[in-house]
Structure formats: C-alpha cells, structure tokens
Amino acid sequence: MITFNPPTIGNPVVPLGEVFLSLQAMKNLTDHDLGQALQSHQAGDWGEASPQVRLLNLQSIHEHADVVSCYKASNGRRFWVQTDFQKNETKVYLALD
Q1: What is the SS3 assignment for 43?
Q2: What are the pLDDT digits (tens) for 6-26?
Q3: N or C: which end of the chain has fewer CB within 10 A?
Q4: Could you tell me which residues come within 8 angstroms of residue 49 by beta carbon, excluding any fewer than 6 positions away?
C-alpha cells in the first residue's frame, strides 16, 4: 500500500484519516478519479454501492465501524474506498487486490 494525500472537505461525514492506495489502484486510477471518489466518500456519497451497503454504511457511521463506497474510474474499472474508523485510515483498491 502507498500513502496518498487526498483533497479534503469541511465537516466530512466520513473522516478519511491516513489514505493508502493498493499498487493496482496506483497503476489504474487517475488523480482525478481518486480525488472525486475520496471527496464523494467523505461527503457520504457511496457511489455505486448497493442499497444494502448504503444502509450498513449509515449504521457504521454511528457505530464507528468500516464504511465502504464503490466507484467507476474513467477507464471503466470499478474500485472501492474503505474507511476503518478504528484505525483512522482509508484504503483504495481494485477488485483483484
């Protein structure tokens, strides 16, 4: 995993903490893809996450558990953003990571 300095928003729903990218995420995602996804994730926009995951995310925010979002990159690749409240960190990874 590689550390990434993301853009931040004021009063985030999901504080990112330290952000890590998998090697595949580094190779396949643009800075624009990452920036948009991380800002959306912080704001509570879960992207293409299923309705079940969306409900779990709302519970997780109140319980300080993991929150997961799913996005599609400009190259069509699907990727995930996962924040671990306990570790104060966020990971970005592709399906095969």
Answers
A1: helix
A2: 666 678 899 999 999 999 999
A3: C
A4: 57, 68, 69, 70
| Alpha carbon distance 14, 4 (integer Å) | 17
By the 10 Å C-beta count (0-12 exposed, 13-18 middle, 19+ buried), 88 is classed as: exposed
pLDDT at 12: 87
> What's the CA gap between 97 and 94, in Å, rounded?
6
- In Å, what is the CA distance from 80 to each residue of 10, 17? 22, 16
Q: What is the pLDDT of residue 78?
A: 95
Return the pLDDT at 97: 61
